[in-house]
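The instructor's notes for this session suggest beginning with a concrete chain rather than abstract definitions. Hand out the sequence below and ask the class to guess, before any prediction is shown, which regions might be ordered.
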Amino acid sequence: MSFNLLIKMQIRQALKLSEQLHKVSESPQLDLELMLCHLLDKPSSYLFTWPDAELDSEIISQLEAMLERRLNGEPVAHIIGYRGFWSFDLEVSPHTLIPRPDTEVLVENALQLCQKQNARVADLGTGTGAIALALATEHPGWELVASDFVAEAAELAERNRKRLKLDNVAVVQGSWFEPHNGTYDMIVSNPPYIDPQDPHLQQGDVRFEPLSALTADQQGMADIEFISSHARNYLKSEGVLLFEHGYDQGELCRDLLKRLGYKEVDTAQDYGQNDRVTYGIWPGNRE
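After discussion, reveal the predicted structure:
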């Protein structure tokens, strides 16, 4: 489909093009604003402060190409190359999940659950590095080790780390606990937790994201069970484990942690009031 954009166009006219995106996006206006801000290298406030500003032919041509990609279902984050998370922007790629706002709930709870000034923290399956980098930003005294099995993901997280100049994070490659040694005050993770048969995998932005980062066997619980079990060998006494999971997995995750011997087990809700992050304290009586 061609948008047949005008040779000359004002910002106010460009913003109306969001109407074309309703069929592919739940947030068409935001999508259009993000693309325009990226092309103009301006904050969103600029769009509404200078609505009569004219876009040059090169910007119009680039906007048309972006709109075509979005109409084909490609995520805005992939189109512009980054996604905002916490207090910074992260480079993204098709090799990793696009950071979601609800994952900030995990960061918020991690900051509340570990009050130490010099904690050692592991982030398993770091992807873009979102969780580890957010924690490192808030606690310069923490030592964080962020790992990912996918080489391209680990390389991406390292690029984000370097760009944010966070020297208290080490990015390593390997499957779950494989590249880790020693013990941690806290272990965090946003692992794959979607059932491979879930029909939502054929809808929206997730169609453009790696299935290996989305799905897990045992109706989405396989990786959560692996992490929860093995974390006991890597947590210090009174260390914290917390992880993100599906909206309908809260009870399963709480039962799992209690069965494995964790205490003070609870679940935090996301911004839509759905179960999203479950956590527990490891008392230290390793089997």
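Then share the key points. The first strand starts at residue 9 and ends at 10. The mean pLDDT is 89.
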